[in-house]
Amino acid sequence: MTKTILADGVLIQRYVEGNQIAFETLMKRHKQRLFSSILNVVNDRYIAEDIFQETFIKVIHQIRAGKYNHEDKFLPWALRIARNLAIDSLRQRKRLPTVVNTEGYDIFETLMVFDKSQEEIRIENDEKSMLNKLIHQLPMEQKEVLILRNYADLSFKEIAAITDTNINTCIGRMHYAIMNLRKMMEKNSVRVK
Amino acid sequence: MNINITESELIAYFYNECSPEVTDYIQVNLDFRADWKEYLNDLDVLRNSMDNFQIPHPTTLSIIMEEISIEENHSI
User: Cα distance from B19 to chain A (closest Cα, Å)?
Assistant: First the structure.
């Protein structure tokens, strides 16, 4: 017997009709992309948990108020709510991002999972972690595009809608993020094999 | 046909959001363009470094579901 995957819109409709399991399914379906996106914006696990929770409470309120009309575009809609909450949180903490420096990485590494020594794996993880630290040092609008494109898997069109910009601006921000990361790595003489 | 490919188009190509014409053009010419390869390589590295997906604590999910139940009961 095959298992039917219900579309987000169907789950929301069922929740509106009183089926809480439908909402739980929806939340579990998107928890990873949503939470990872929030976490990478605020860079604090506890705050991310709070924002995730607040996001879903708002989601529930809006659905119950009949304000959800995005059919199966649930994730971009929920991300928009999460983004606003994350920005509020960052403002409250006055943790404005700044551009700084360093680090490196590698490519095609995922194809060579075998034959890696523990040391190689450790170095690779360190490099990944260094690059992630650099990403957090990017200006917020650049970091945001990276997160929404790579974690949430949103298209540039969807990102543009969430951030109230346009596709060209989003792609431009992605380009500047690449350029900034290159500079940071070069400045710190970081080279990854 | 000679098309001037910008970094924006390379980004769109990398994420499969490019027009079919530009996609074909990039694919045909990629082997001759080290600069494109390097740029696409950077995008790949960046995406690979961002694969540390995380999930919220189960308690957070429970709290949300509890909240739903409370609201449901209030509305009855």
Answer: 14
